[in-house]
Specification:
By secondary structure, the chain is an alpha/beta fold. It is built from 8 helices and 10 strands. Helix 1 runs parallel beside helix 2.
């Protein structure tokens, strides 16, 4: 699985944060497809998961990445480097941590990312859910330290995953505006063509996004 229409210039970034307009938009498939595309282009790419919820052991998203990348589970997966924080309940990180009586320390994520950047050309760091998902609660105006706060703090450019399902255009534009307001660069939009429940909406949303000044890559099923 690879992507159409990706400029390999994207590999100038040591870390790209992969976010989505919502949960279940195809981030995991898009992350693996981008890794495959970069690998095919001659770059040594690795995927990482920021926080995995709804799991015990190691990350199911990392496991899916390796399957789609035609790789076995790696030592850096087994030792937790590619997903250093795993929580058992399938919820946003702040709630999953509360349920597990755990504390999310983002320094652990940073250390893992730094380890990966020392061995790979580019790290694709997949988030949990969308940009505004809380990582932990605090006294910030929106009630917590959000994924977008983490991205801004680390000055990571992002890849935004969207789709053609009804409502996706609104969510995509809100995500773009949130990034613009915080000075976060969107390097690429990955448009997930599946499920294609309404061909008119899928094409219309893509046509609209193509009027924006952001590169768009297409994720299709069974692209090898």
């Amino acid at each position: 699985m690879i992507l159409k229409n990706v400029s390999l210039n994207i590999a100038k970034n040591k870390v790209l944060f992969i976010s989505g307009i919502d949960t279940n938009v195809g981030k995991t498939y898009a992350t693996a497809a981008l890794a495959n595309t970069l690998t095919k282009g001659g770059y040594k790419a690795i995927t990482q998961k920021m926080v995995q919820t709804g799991c015990i052991g190691y990350s199911e998203d990392i496991e899916k990445h390796r399957e789609l990348m035609s790789l076995p589970i790696l030592d850096i997966d087994k030792d937790g480097t590619t997903c250093p924080i795993i929580l058992s309940y399938p919820a946003s990180p702040h709630l999953a941590a509360e349920i597990d009586s755990a504390k999310i320390d983002t320094a652990i994520i940073d250390k893992a990312t730094q380890k990966l950047t020392s061995s790979y050309d580019i790290v694709l760091l997949e988030g949990a859910g969308g940009l505004m998902v809380p990582i932990y609660t605090n006294s910030n105006p929106l009630g917590g330290y959000l994924t977008i706060d983490y991205i801004k703090e680390h000055n990571y450019p992002i890849v935004l995953v969207t789709s053609g399902k009804l409502g996706s255009l609104n969510h995509t534009l809100l995500s773009i505006e949130a990034c613009s307001n915080r000075g976060i660069k969107i390097e690429l939009i990955i448009y997930n063509m599946y499920p294609n429940s309404d061909a008119v909406i899928t094409k219309g949303s893509l046509d609209y996004l193509n009027t924006l000044n952001i590169p768009i890559a297409i994720l299709e099923e069974n692209i090898i």
